[in-house]
Amino acid sequence: MSTSKTSCILNTDNGYALPVVLLISLIIMAISMSMSFVTRSSLATAYDLKNRSRAMMSAYSAMNEVIYRISTATFRGNRLQVTTADGTTQDWTLYGKPFALAAGVTIRLRDTGGMFSPLSNPRQLARLAAYVSGQNDITDQLIDTLSDWQDIDVFKRLNGAEEFDYRSSGAPYVPRNFFLQLPEELMLVKGYTPAIYRELKDELVYWGSPSSNYLTMDEKAWRALLRDDDLVEKLAAMREQSELTAYNFQELTGIKKTEYQLFSPSGWIQVSIKAEAGEARDFITAVILKKQVFDKPFMIASWKK
What we know:
The protein has about 300 residues and is an alpha+beta fold. It is built from eight helices and ten strands. The protein folds into two domains: about 40-115 and about 205-305, no CATH class; about 115-190, EpsJ-like (Ribonucleotide Reductase Protein R1, domain 1, Orthogonal Bundle).
């Protein structure tokens, strides 16, 4: 009897061994998989941080080089003639055409005279806003509402908007009655919807020249101001071939040089840099004032990271 009992107990113990071994194996497997996942995640994070650092350093390095090239360059018509490190010269366009400075680094330069500022040329900005909205009949409204927002009085223009109009529309704010403090504030002005702003944002500049330079405007601006698509295509082709001059632009468009409409670079240059490393991206936008002074050849007017 004693032997039979012992055998029964042993058999019972043997029955528990397999589940215990399987459970321990599963625990070890789960720990191993967890450690493997953590290791892969850590490696991916380290690789991502490395790429982010490379992109950031590439962007800063590119900006330093571009500032130096701008400060030592000369204007050649509506282009910058730049001397490169190997002593050769290049023409850099000033109407936003992107070009590669180095592997993974793209540069866009724009003469701010070919852009639109709510401070210096609000009427042209309103015309561009009306064009991108597809509603040409709101041009006067956009001119007046922007003027009412920025002037210091509380008197409403014919198509404008003052405190009562904003209050009655349910807006939780009223006109600043002073200059816009940043381009994004434009979305608060009556009529300038977020959809319009998205179409405008690449054309906007805050600090820049008080004059306009038609020769460095992009095609969107030409289409808004000239309202002749065939003419715009002809002008764009001439500019691409470096054949567009102040004289033939005036002959083709009938637009004449005035105190505020010039056909030469303003000296205020917006520099936009995009640096890529793997999946990482880094962007810097700055406005550089090129000055013809030996000891102070440039000034940084704005910087956005």
